[in-house]
């Protein structure tokens, strides 16, 4: 599932290519991917321009010239491709937004969605999300985590605690902080809490710089998207050697949550 770095990569790339361009056509191939009747959705989107693209947690927000918003959540298996009829992936496209010959394809939206929302509706939809990692101070993080008793892994992926972190980067953050992903939050020392906080922003920043870990290209000739996939430290590296100590990375599951970690570095 795309996490903060993947969605931020999408935001940056799309902001360079579709801002202030008129949406000339809207094609809906799966009604359940949107929240309006097809004709209603199309009439409110076609002919408008995207004036700004924001990210909140794992969502993208396309601000329209009408004052409304398109809220995107790709969920599991969803991705986007920016291209045209000659280079589009041979995959089912649930939604297609056209900007003349340029088209933005929304692919794999079996669980994901693209919803048309007013500013008020948008605020209500996103109201329960926790703070953005890059906006979180060390003092606020220490206060937040001091009230928690559960394991670090499910805590870090809880969008009400911190927004945007999922399975991949929670493992990467715990590894960077030398903490076991199933260590209890209330058992952390002051030094360990600082180490955990200190790992969050660098891990996410590096992932954004490398284009995230999802390897579906955003456009033809895209060499950046998915660049973090070859730089993962522990996530889905079960049986491979730890880069620090050489110990084999292990996979562990607890309460249906899988995690990858180094049993020596992250005791």
Fill in the keyword field for this structure.
alpha+beta; Helicase, Ruva Protein, domain 3; 2 domains; globular
Question: What's the CATH class of the largest domain, please?
Answer: Mainly Alpha
Sheet bearing the most strands, described? 4 strands, antiparallel
Shape summary:
globular
Query: Can you tell me the CATH architecture of the largest domain?
Result: Orthogonal Bundle
- The secondary-structure element order is HEHEEEEEEEHHHHHEE
Radius of gyration: 20 Å
Helical content stands at 25-40%
Subunit structure: Monomer.
InterPro entries: FPG_cat, FPG_Glyclase, FPG_N, H2TH_FPG, Ribosomal_uS13-like_H2TH, Znf_DNA_glyclase/AP_lyase
GO molecular function: 8-oxo-7,8-dihydroguanine DNA N-glycosylase activity; class I DNA-(apurinic or apyrimidinic site) endonuclease activity; damaged DNA binding; double-stranded DNA binding; zinc ion binding
Pfam families: Fapy_DNA_glyco, H2TH
Describe this structure in words.
This protein has 267 residues and is α+β, with helices and mostly antiparallel strands. The chain has two domains: 122 residues, MutM-like, N-terminal (N-terminal domain of MutM-like DNA repair proteins, Alpha-Beta Barrel), CATH 3.20.190; 129 residues, Helicase, Ruva Protein, domain 3 (Orthogonal Bundle). It has seven helices and ten strands. Helix 4 crosses helix 7 and helix 6 crosses helix 7. It is globular and about 55 Å long. The protein starts with a helix and ends in a 6-residue tail after the last strand. The mean pLDDT is 96.
């Amino acid at each position: 599932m795309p996490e903060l770095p993947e969605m931020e990569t999408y935001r940056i790339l799309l902001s360079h290519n579709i801002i202030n361009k008129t949406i000339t056509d809207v094609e809906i191939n799966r009604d359940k991917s949107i929240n309006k009747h097809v004709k209603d959705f199309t009439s409110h989107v076609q002919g408008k321009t995207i004036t700004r693209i924001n990210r909140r947690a794992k969502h993208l927000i396309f601000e329209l010239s009408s004052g409304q918003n398109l809220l995107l959540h790709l969920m599991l298996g969803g991705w986007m491709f920016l291209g045209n009829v000659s280079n589009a992936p041979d995959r089912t496209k649930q939604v297609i937004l056209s900007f003349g010959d340029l088209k933005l394809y929304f692919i794999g939206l079996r669980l994901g969605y693209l919803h048309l929302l007013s500013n008020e509706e948008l605020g209500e939809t996103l109201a329960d999300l926790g703070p953005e990692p890059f906006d979180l101070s060390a003092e606020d993080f220490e206060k937040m985590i001091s009230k928690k008793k559960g394991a670090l892994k499910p805590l870090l992926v809880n969008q009400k605690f911190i927004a945007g972190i999922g399975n991949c980067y929670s493992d990467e953050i715990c590894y960077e902080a030398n903490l076991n992903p199933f260590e209890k939050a209330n058992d952390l020392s002051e030094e360990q809490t600082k180490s955990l906080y200190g790992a969050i922003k660098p891990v996410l920043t590096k992932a954004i710089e490398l284009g995230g870990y999802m390897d579906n290209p955003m456009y033809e000739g895209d060499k950046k998207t998915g660049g973090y996939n070859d730089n993962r430290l522990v996530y889905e590296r079960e049986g491979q050697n730890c880069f620090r100590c050489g110990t084999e990375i292990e996979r562990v599951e607890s309460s249906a949550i899988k995690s990858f970690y180094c049993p020596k570095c992250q005791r």
